[in-house]
Automatic annotation (TrEMBL):
GO terms for molecular function: glyoxalase III activity; transferase activity. This is Type 1 glutamine amidotransferase domain-containing protein. The keyword Nucleus does not apply. Pfam families: DJ-1_PfpI (PF01965).
Amino acid sequence: MAKILFVMTGVDYWTLADGSKHPTGYWAEEFAAPYEAFTGAGHEIVVATPGGVTPAVDRASLAADVNGGPEGAEKIAALLKRATELASPIRLEDVALGDYDAVYYPGGHGPMEDLAVNADSGRLLTDALASGKPLGVVCHAPAALLATTGADGSSPFAGYRITGFTNAEETQAGWADKAKWLLQDRLEALGADFRVGEPWAPHIEVDRNLYTGQNPASSAPLATELLKAL
């Protein structure tokens, strides 16, 4: 049995370009699909957040229209209730990478707010990449890679083939013209080899021990690849 660390946003808002705060958090499917896959395979999950705060779910991600209808919405809500790990996260600041076999970052707009500038997360990502352990990051969670930039402006993720929520998807979702910055733009500026798939369709990229998914639909396929690596 493997022990997998889920690093999650600790905020329930995303600050827009006009200074207003849009309610958000983590995206339900991006937690639920890998959680179900990993625990179903007998693996242990530990959740970590900045300060050890209880992660907040983006309420929009619980809606029927993004979960295949009312039955899907009920299923995902029930799974979140069963996931007792969400109620007792550890402090990201106290994480010891050696305790875990893999690291996974679910998305949602929350990571754009806190993990993108969190030094503890940046160090963890840098160490996880160097360790060779499977490292999975999906949708908006690659924003956390921005915190790996060193004093010289370089990142260990430069040159890696990755994906994440695209400019096209942010535009279609109605947030591109409201955001302070766009994830794809920042990751390309970081030096990552950013790959774009069809909007909203499953798309993953695997480069060495780094596993990235483009959007919520990519979280289940990403979990499948991480299970193979484990």
